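Sample 1 of the test manifest.
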Amino acid sequence: MSNPRLQEWLQPGASIIVATADAEGVPAACRGIAIAAGKEPDTLILYLPAATAHEALANIATTRRMAVAASHPLSHRTVQVKGVTRGVKLAPAADEAFVRQRWDAFAGVLDEIGLPRRILLGVAHWPAFAVEMSIEQIFDQTPGPNAGAPLA
Amino acid sequence: MKLSTLHRCFQGVIPSLVATADAHGLPNITYVSQIHLIDDRHVALSQQFFNKTRRNLAENPHAAAEMYDPVTFQAYRLRLRFLRSEKEGPLFDTMKLRIQAIASHTGMEGVFRLIAADVFEVTRVEKVEGFLTDAALPDAEVAPTGMRTELRGLQLVSDRINRADDLENLLAATLDALDVYFGFSNTIVLLFDEPSQRLITIACRGYGGGVGAEVALGEGLIGTVARERRVLRISGLDEGLRYGRAVRRSVINESGSVRPEVPLPGLPDAQSALVLPLLIEERLIGVLAAESRDPFAFGEWDEAYLGVIANQIALGIDRVIDDEAPAAEESAPPPRPTPPPPLRARHTLTYYRNDDTVFLDDEYLVRNVPGRILWKLLGEYKKQGRTTFTNRELRMDKSLGLPEVKDNLESRLILLRHRLREKCPNVQLTPAGRGKFTLDVAAELDLIER
């Protein structure tokens, strides 16, 4: 079930970025492939590429803490979700079409602003890990004086 | 891996990611439009708002960044340790200029501005292995720039500047040479008009018109460069403007209204720009701007040699304006005037005294000093049938309001000639030897003063 405040960012075309931190508080950044509403209220599923998400997965295995931002590249409208992970698994084959379709949509948006689609489609995005996350806080992160304000 | 080998990632074409964590290890992620390369062990981030990233760094100096090569999209990760915030000095000034220019252009000056340049030590840099699949393109190397070719080009441009005998020829020859020898096909020169504190486009190439367009000091990319008297090189201009517009929308939602966006005086879809002040010591002569649809059109090397050319242009402009001094005006014999073609057309020219504006058949033609000059010439043509005029008599005429020193008369005549060429082919100003020109009229004129 999706959180109504996140509807806009659950649509295809958003850019997904992720922060985690290790037990010493040293952060790591990586790119996500897609997000989807989770089955439970106030949860979401984050897809991370298996090829490049080792550090993020190691961090959430120890601290469970995550921050996920979703942004529309054309307008820079951005939201940041913070919470804890509930579980991590290799995404099932049934999710492959969804993940590929979302990455393709993102590539299409970047193509509009000058980064050729063929380059984006060369980014490793499958297989992927599916990370289930409980949403604790949602912030508006659109650039401007209100960036960081809790999303009403 | 040396940071300097990743120079394309630092051009701000693709936003980078920056992760921080608070004292309890709660992570935060944000985009930054540009990571600034200081040297092989240090980078800087711009601090524009007191946001969560700033608060986290005050508690926990560790940070991580992921950045992307805009040609291949290969990702690189940096492990960072926050060292200090700089609120003045060369690094701050360099980073401030880009932000000021974008903010000014999008009507957001004062709303988003550089608060500090946050300096980080880079403790590790690594290529993200496996980020690109085998199907992706291999690293495309940008062809090395040919220094020898460009030095030769520099010599040729310099030679043309030295040989030009008037301002119009100087600017036309320079912009032509920049196109031919350096491939800069979209260029503009604006001269600074001190009394009005505005910059007026006096020559341009690659736009199909535009002479006469004005920019206020401090307004947009060009006005900011003029006010700060510093070079601005922007890649990823489109991305920077999108960011500025996002801030603008956010402010409009909060406060209702903001100053209108400044139209870019050049390409509507420019991806990169190099804007240089034309200076003699600290005196602002004007601005030279080059832009391109290629996001990588201008590198550090271009900035260096275009800087040399800008200095030459500034000196050249100063020289030809000084050459326009009254003593030099008698030196060249006036050529025989061409007899005007038979009069067929009829135009009404109206001069509005309250704002020094001249309209041609109800369409705006020119204003301010060029407008007053045109009105004087047309008046004497109608009353006395005069067609030959000298720069000296214009300088002596107090009613034109030319400054006593550095009156830029030549640039005002160029502007007037261009406007007439574009809007009124039946009335032309033709140079007739140094310090002289003719008024060529091929129409019946009705003059109205209001």
